[in-house]
Amino acid sequence: xxxxxxxxxxxxxxxxYNLVGNACKFTERGSIWVDASxxxxxxxxxxxxxxxxxxxxxxxxxxxxxxxxxxDMSTTRRYGGTGLGLNLVKQLVEAHGxxxxxASRQGKGSVFTFTLRVWRDGQASPxxxxxxxxxxxxxxxxxxTAEAAEDLESVRSSQA
Length: 160
Ligand SMILES: Nc1ncnc2c1ncn2[C@@H]1O[C@H](COP(=O)(O)OP(=O)(O)OP(=O)(O)O)[C@@H](O)[C@H]1O
Ligand SMILES: [Mg+2]
Prior knowledge:
By secondary structure, this protein is α+β, with helices and mostly antiparallel strands. It has two domains: 4-127, Heat Shock Protein 90 (2-Layer Sandwich); 128-159. The chain is built from four helices and six strands, in the order βαββααβββα. It has helices at residues 9-25, 73-79, 85-95, 131-159; strands spanning 5-6, 32-39, 44-51, 100-105, 109-117, 119-120. The strands form two sheets. Strands 2-3-5-4 form a four-stranded antiparallel sheet, with helices on both faces. Strands 1-6 form a two-stranded antiparallel sheet. A hairpin with a 4-residue loop joins strand 2 (32-39) and strand 3.
C-alpha cells in the first residue's frame, strides 16, 4: 500500500462509528475487533468489524440494511436504537462506490465488511466511479466477508 493515502475521512469514521456501535450493543461476551486489508493495487481497502455477539438470523441478513429494520421488537426494547444506522452506512458506502456485506451465525457473532477507495496523497482526485469500480468493490467485500465468516467459526470452536 502507498505510504500515505487519502479518503473521505469523516464518512469513514461515521461508517465505523455505526458498525462498532452495533458490535458493542449486540455483544455481551467475547470480543470485537476491526481489521483492514488492501487490494486492487493498494487502491481498495476492505474494513471488517467482527463481533462475538448475538448474531443475526440468516433470513434477516438482507433486510437489516433497510430503513427501520430491526431483528425484533424485544431486541429494540432491550438495546434501543431506531434501525437507521445500517441504512445510513449502506448509503454512505455506496455513494463512494463501495459495497457492504455481512455474514453472521446466530448466537455466535457477525462480521460486516465495507470497501472503500483510497488514492495517493497529492493525486488531484480519484478516478470516476464506474460500473466496473462498483463490481470490483462488491467482489472485494464479498470475498473478505466470506473469509472472515470462516474465522468466525474457528474463533467459536477454539473457545468451545
Ligand atoms: N453486530 C450486530 N449483531 C447483531 N445484530 C445486529 C448487528 N448489527 C445490526 N444488527 C441487527 O440489525 C438491526 C439494524 O441495525 P441498525 O444499526 O440499522 O439499527 P439499530 O442499531 O437497531 O438502531 P440505530 O443504529 O438507529 O441506533 C439491529 O437492530 C439488529 O437487529
Ligand atoms: Mg445501529
